[in-house]
Amino acid sequence: MDVTEWLAWFLDTLHRAVDQAQDTLDVVLVETRFWQRWATTPLNERQVKLLNRLLDGFEGKLTSSKWAAIAKCSPDTALRDITDLLARGVLRKSDAGGRSTSYALNDLSE
User: Fold this and answer.
1) Does residue 105 share a domain with residue 83?
2) Is the distance from CB of 74 to CB of 80 less than 8 angstroms?
3) pLDDT tens digit string along 83-94?
4) CA gap 110, 108 in Å, rounded
5) Which pLDDT belongs to residue 108?
6) What is the pLDDT of residue 3?
7) Whole-angstrom distance, CA of residue 47 vs CA of residue 67
8) Are residues 105 and 58 in the same domain?
9) pLDDT, averaged across the chain
10) Is the predicted pLDDT of residue 110 greater than 60, yes or no?
11) Which of 32, 60, 65, 93 has a CA positioned 20 to 30 A from the CA of residue 14?
12) What are phi and psi of 41, to 5 degrees?
């Protein structure tokens, strides 16, 4: 491998490393802005746990039954937690109703 090939490889590797670092930083900044925005909002441990799970990229749709299972609480408690976060504007409800109702974080760019 000559110097030109090595330099091309090195610069490509450096570029990929910088891109990955930027992606990581973007995620950290989104989470930081989220928690700064809601810093004065009283939240219980279950709510903090589930909000962190959503910020970390929750797979699928968050339903009240999934909330109850993850938070290890009753379905009624999960629904109270969710209702509280909906009222505060932290979460938004999907358009689907009934058993298809799911919840997501409100727009993080606000």
Assistant:
1) yes
2) no
3) 999 999 999 998
4) 6
5) 66
6) 83
7) 9
8) yes
9) 91
10) no
11) 32
12) -90, 120
Domain carrying residue 50: 42-110
Tokens at residue 74, please?
A: 């009753």
The neighbour count for residue 62, using CB atoms within 10 Å, is 21
* Structure token digits, residue 37: 């925005």
β-bridge pairing 103-105 and 91-93? antiparallel
Amino acid at 107: D
CA 27 to chain centre: 9
Same-domain status, 55 and 88: yes
Q: Quick one: what percent of the chain has pLDDT higher than 90? A: 77
Q: State whether 46 and 4 are in the same domain.
A: no
Same domain, 49 and 85: yes
Q: Are residues 22 and 67 in the same domain?
A: no
Helix, strand, coil percentages for the chain (3-state, nearest 5): 65, 5, 30
**Rounded distance, CA 55 to CA 34, Å?**
9
Closest CA relative to residue 88, chosen from 39, 52, 53, 45: 39
First-last CA distance in the chain? 50
Residue with tokens 């670092």: 21
